[in-house]
Design a protein that fits this description.
Helix content: 25-40%
Number of domains: 1
CATH class: Alpha Beta
Strand content: 25-35%
Number of strands: 14
Order of helices and strands: EHEEHEHEHEEHEEEEEHEEH
Mean pLDDT: 96
CATH superfamily: Spore Coat Polysaccharide Biosynthesis Protein SpsA, Chain A
Largest sheet: 10 strands, mixed
CATH architecture: Alpha-Beta Complex
Distance between the termini: 34 Å
Radius of gyration: 17 Å
């Protein structure tokens, strides 16, 4: 296998940091220079040859479905994982969507991030290294970090604002890196998720990193923005014309 043909976009969140837009709309449909975040991420996956995508929906799910229908999935085959009954976070959302995936690796991305990272290169790295998962990371400053050893193996997590730390494996040097919300997941990982209901992929990765290889892929050279708050819109429009 030298390529990956399926992806998942997390588009279910309430987007509470993104009010007032999210009082009336899902954050995934916020528009950057004439294109919604959802369209931009579908096209981002297409650039790497991924034309089959699972999208989870919860908040204003009907608007997401209508946008996909009106635009014919922007050229991709879209499968919907319906979370309208209960929002499951990233881990629970991935677990619920698992029956929709083929038994091959998949690229997962948060709908509210924009990046020009070379996804094809990240896919080649994942296939060559063959970890359970590869996480896109950068050197940017944030409050929550994944912690890696010097070979970019995941070893833990740290919240610098609360001082909380979770260590999966102890090494002499822990290198903090910021997670970009883009990950590649091997099919073997899905049945290993023991958590139930609503939970984060961060907890899954920290648990699995104790005995398995979870790799970081550093793309500090590329453009990246988390369109988490309304004030990020102007920045995003400047970065992504």
């Amino acid at each position: 296998m030298h390529t990956i043909s399926q992806g998942m976009i997390f588009a279910a969140g309430l987007g509470t940091r993104f009010k007032p837009w999210t009082d009336q709309h899902p954050k995934a449909l916020a528009v950057i220079n004439g294109k919604s975040l959802l369209q931009r991420n579908i096209e981002f996956l297409q650039q790497a040859g991924i034309f089959q995508v699972v999208i989870n929906v919860h908040h204003f799910a009907d608007q997401v479905l209508k946008a996909l229908q009106d635009n014919d999935g922007w050229g991709s085959k879209v499968l919907i994982s319906d979370e309208t009954d209960a929002l499951l976070e990233t881990g629970g959302g991935l677990k619920k969507a698992a029956p929709l995936f083929e038994p091959t690796p998949l690229v997962v991305i948060n709908s509210d991030i924009l990046t020009d990272l070379d996804l094809g290169a990240m896919i080649r790295f994942h296939i060559k290294e063959a970890p359970l998962a590869t996480l896109a990371i950068t050197n940017r400053v944030t409050s929550r970090y994944f912690l890696f050893d010097e070979e970019n193996n995941l070893c833990g997590w740290r919240n610098t604002s609360t001082g909380e730390e979770k260590i999966s494996r102890s090494v002499d040097t822990l290198v903090p890196k910021a997670f970009s919300g883009v990950h590649i997941i091997s099919p073997e990982l899905l049945p290993m998720i023991r958590q139930e209901g609503k939970f984060s992929m961060v907890d899954v990765y920290l648990e699995l990193a104790k005995t398995n290889s979870i790799k970081g892929y550093d793309h500090s050279y590329s453009k990246f923005i988390d369109v988490g708050k309304p004030e990020a819109l102007a920045q995003a429009e400047a970065l992504f014309p």
